[in-house]
Design brief:
570 residues; mainly alpha; two-stranded parallel ribbon; 25 helices; disordered N terminus; disordered C terminus
């Protein structure tokens, strides 16, 4: 009777209406802010076109194999980011919990970026862009605008910098001075969560339709900005600076570390999202072909975004008579200081500012609501009663409210310091590298690459190239182990602008965020070993035994032996 109830409630889980919805949803998840404001910066920082060499190496040996593993795992098990691991290795289920904690931290962080974007978008409709002049109430005597009064004095600050720091953030002197809530930003944050809620309020039925717009319109905006950038004077100088190769940089370990981290973050790997998106597929969808094409599209999009960014930076460099290395930046600095500064120098700047921030908004919203969908689905797959009645909507509303309240501390005067702390420690590349190692070992060795290939053959009708299998077993874990080791050796504590050093308790919060993610894995292993019966060897054999038959049809499961207490931990 209990099994029938579970099956009935899980029928409400839903599926993509067609293949297009899956492709657009994954593109929406992949094509995000990391493509626009991090990849171009890493290119010029790490040797221009030479950076493409380590990037492609990691893409082919780690990115595509892991992407294929995660989407196919979700499709085969029809489970979310937590319960999918129960099907192939219950001992690895702790990684599913850890990945959901990363999603939770990301949900809080990402909406802050959306709130900033809404603030800039609304400001773009003013008669004069507020970050283009120094005659505003928030400007200081050191402000220098772009109306012919620009100066290169060392103590001068640009109008766009002062708008960002003194108007948008109202930044204090440190995390010790949290100050008051910036209620305009709090309103933008609330708007961001309302938008995210309605994108997923009916599950995949809603999100599958929303992605038709949110995943395609940013490409249109990117093409418009690219064409505009390439027609600006100085654009060629920017592109040369972007891709000019420095072969000597290939010997720099940091270049390879940056490439590995960029591949993992830009492909949303090891965060539990891809399993959920794959789980909504039909069982016989060709996930092997999808993985290759979608990863390549993501890489090409990152490259094209660099052309759009550096063509405009080349124009800005020429107008201000400064070297591009001075005006180039990454992260929020690129989106909210440098690029708006360049837009202020263009004719009809309000138009280009509006288009730019609409693109940034859609890039962020897409990734945000799909992460929210992954979180809610993974929790609902673990506790199936959420699929009955309006309980799923209650879970969704509760998540949005809790994350909004947590995010309020990031829209205070000291909020940027909290945001950077959470972003740096809460979802850092080292955690993802560790998960990549565990994931590849779990599929390649514990479950067995050959066994997994039989499952894939059952879905797509043929066996993929053995290349993926060898990557899971040897190449991927080896490369990720090397990068993780080097990252730990070279790890440096967070500093704002490389100047402000956090107090000891600030670093304590950051360490807690990192430890809270990683510690779930060993805690789960100890827990399931404790509640299982038999000798240690018998318990380990039981916990690594797959729940899915090699030849099982969709949704069939192998029951654990009656003598095992395995059912009590599922």
């Amino acid at each position: 009777m209990e099994v029938k109830q579970v099956r009935r409630t899980r029928e409400n889980r839903g599926q993509w209406a067609n293949k297009r919805e899956f492709v657009l949803a994954v593109l929406g998840q992949l094509i995000g802010l990391a493509n626009f404001w991090r990849f171009p910066y890493l290119c010029f920082k790490n040797g221009g076109g030479v950076f493409l060499v380590p990037y492609l190496v990691f893409l082919l040996t780690c990115g595509i194999p892991l992407f294929f593993a995660e989407t196919s795992l979700g499709q085969f098990t029809q489970e979310g980011g937590i319960t999918c691991w129960s099907s192939i290795c219950l001992l690895a289920k702790g990684m599913g919990f850890s990945s959901q904690l990363i999603i939770f931290y990301s949900l809080v962080d990402y909406t802050i970026i959306l709130a900033w974007t809404f603030f800039y978008l609304f400001s773009s409709f003013s008669a004069t862009l507020p970050w283009s002049r120094c005659n505003n109430t928030w400007n200081t005597d050191r402000c220098s605008d772009y109306g012919g009064n620009f100066t290169s004095e060392s103590n001068a600050t640009s109008a766009s910098t002062e708008f960002w720091l003194r108007r948008v953030l109202r930044l204090s002197g440190g995390i010790e001075e949290m100050g008051e809530v910036h209620w305009e930003l709090a309103g933008c944050l609330l708007l961001s969560w309302i938008l995210s809620y309605f994108c997923v309020w009916k599950g995949v039925k809603t999100s599958g339709k929303v992605v038709y717009f949110t995943a395609t319109f940013p490409y249109l905006m990117l093409m418009v900005l690219l064409i505009r950038g390439l027609t600006l004077p100085g654009a060629v100088d920017g592109l040369v600076f972007y891709l000019y190769p420095e072969p000597a940089r290939l010997t720099d370990i940091q270049v390879w570390m940056d490439a590995g981290n960029q591949v993992l973050t830009s492909l949303s790997l090891c965060a539990g999202c891809l399993q959920v998106l794959g789980s909504y597929n039909k069982f016989n969808n060709n996930c092997y072909r999808d993985a290759i094409y979608l990863c390549l599209v993501n890489a090409v999009t990152s490259l094209v975004a660099g052309f759009a960014v550096f063509s405009v930076l080349g124009f800005m460099s020429r107008e201000l008579n400064q070297d591009i290395s001075v005006v180039a930046d990454s992260g929020p600095g690129l989106a909210f200081i440098t690029y708006p500064s360049a837009i202020a120098l263009m004719p009809v700047p309000q138009l280009w500012a509006s288009l730019f921030f609409i693109m940034i908004l859609l890039l962020g919203v897409d990734s945000q609501f799909l992460c929210l969908e992954a979180w809610v689905t993974s929790i609902s797959d673990m506790f199936t009663f959420f699929y009955t009645g309006r309980r799923r909507q209650f879970l969704l509303v509760s998540t949005c409210v809790v994350c909004y309240l947590l995010g309020l501390c990031m829209v205070t005067e000291g909020g940027l310091y909290v945001f950077l702390l959470s972003d740096y420690y809460g979802s850092n590349g080292m955690s993802l590298m560790l998960f990549a190692i565990i994931e590849s070992v779990c599929i390649g060795w514990v479950y067995g690459a050959d066994r997994y290939y039989k499952n894939v053959e059952q879905m797509i009708g043929y066996r993929p190239s053995p290349y993926m299998k060898y990557c899971w077993k040897f190449v991927t874990p080896t490369l990720c182990t090397v990068i993780l080791t080097l990252s730990l050796i070279r790890f440096t504590p967070l500093k704002y602008n490389n100047v402000y050093q956090y107090p000891w308790w600030g670093y304590g919060i950051g360490i807690f965020l990192s430890v809270s993610i990683i510690s779930i894995i060993p805690v789960w292993v100890l827990y399931v070993l404790k509640v299982s019966t038999g000798s240690l060897r018998q318990r380990l054999n039981t916990l690594i035994r797959p729940v899915v038959h090699d030849g099982a049809s969709q949704n069939k499961r192998q029951e654990a032996p009656p003598s095992s207490s395995r059912n009590c931990v599922l």
